[in-house]
Amino acid sequence: MLDNESTYSVFPESDERTSIEYTEVVLARLGEITLKGQNRRRFEQRLIKNMAHRLRRIGSFEVNQRHSRIWIVPQNEESLAAIDGALDIATDVFGIVSASKVRRFESDPDALRRQSIAYVAEEIKPKKGMTFKVETKRGNKQYPLNSMEISAEIGGDILAAFPELTVDVHDPDFIIYLEVRDEMYVYSKIVPGVRGLPIGMSGRGMLLISGGIDSPVAGYMMASRGVELEAIYFHTFPYTSDRAKEKVVSLAHLLTKYTGRIKLHVVDFTETQLTLNKLVPPEMMTLVMRRMMLRVAEVVAKQRYCGALITGESLGQVASQTMEALAATNSVVSLPIFRPLIGIDKDATVEIARRIGTFEVSILPYEDCCTVFVAKHPKTRPSLSQADEAEKKLDINYLVEDCINKIDTVLLKAEDL
Ligand code: ATP
Ligand code: MG
């Protein structure tokens, strides 16, 4: 609990503290400092644009960049009240390494002292036995004290105001960060961001998304490298239920938390699937089905200016994900296929799925078409000629065309989450 007496010894008139003038802003720190020249500028411009766009749904914010940081400044009272939401959004925008909610006030030694004490009282709510330290960055070199001196002085003021606290410079319970620039800032929490590259910096990719754990994670990973996502799902109603489709829609929607928006193309795959069932040897079914999906996905990808296809495949996980099977799927498309999970084991994928919030939906028990139609003993090492042979009786062009004509597209937005 706060020791009132010690607090009010610093604020002799009780309403002085409430009259302290400050505003709250979000300070977000940029990553990938290894980027140079033109790339660096593109990185920053993209990031600012993405950030401003993502913030628009919760209020009116100005987004400025100075050095390797972004300042998010509320433009009115309602937006100021939404500052915690702005912090949440900022840490989910790719390119941000960390962010803090910061109190900003006029540059003045007395204000620094009073604001620091008020901050500790209101935001930390010190308790007996807690330890702290002060860390200062001084951008304004005109300021009479250097950063060490500022930390020592303000640390002393905080100790005097809160006798229940002690200083521990090695392992404190909280750190008071001060910045002395044209204006001054105080904050204590640094929230980690999602890092990566700003969405849109690396072109656009078409994610083959299913209801499983892997493909949403694969989409997230490519998005974190700056790829703007579109998604395509092959639906085999009634062999897979509409609830299975809803699950895929939910998963794609969850990804918009990081991407802003995603166009999801739902392909009615039933007729193609039934044709394959009739005309393809069972042990080759999974592979041929995958090849059909990729062919269709590539046509849609090219129409939508995507430069790559993305899947959740991981080497050796199932029969259709052997080196030979992957080679046989690659051979039917010309766009590169990005498989960010190729060298990652399931536990690591699950961990990412949990962190990004898709896991709980992915494990809902709705069948996917691969489990409905798959053979008991698929061929694990199909050669290219065996794969081509298995498709001999198919009118590939007709089937692809048929799928393209049966696409339903939905636009999913972060603001509707
Ligand atoms: P996931 O967990 O993503 O479903 P998985 O380990 O179950 O992957 P498979 O079912 O063999 O693997 O699918 C491999 C990849 O093929 C998926 O990660 C996804 O990219 C794509 N895929 C599978 N089924 C579909 C589908 N119905 N629609 C779109 N893409 C699909
Ligand atoms: Mg699957």
Provide a descriptive summary of the structure in words.
The chain has 417 residues and is α/β, with parallel strands linked by helices. The longest helix has 19 residues. The protein folds into two domains: 189 residues, 2-Layer Sandwich (VC0802-like), CATH 3.30.2130; 213 residues, Rossmann fold (3-Layer(aba) Sandwich), CATH 3.40.50. The two termini are 38 Å apart. The N terminus is likely disordered. A hairpin with a 2-residue loop joins strand 2 and strand 3. It contains 16 helices and 15 strands. The chain binds adenosine-5'-triphosphate and magnesium ion. The site of adenosine-5'-triphosphate (ATP) has 20 residues, from helix 7, strand 11 and helix 14.
Distance between termini? 38 Å
Q: Could you give a short account of the major beta sheet?
A: 9 strands, mixed
Helix content: 40-55%
Name the CATH superfamily classification of the largest domain.
HUPs
Count of separate DSSP helical elements: 16
Structural class: alpha/beta
Strand content: 15-25%
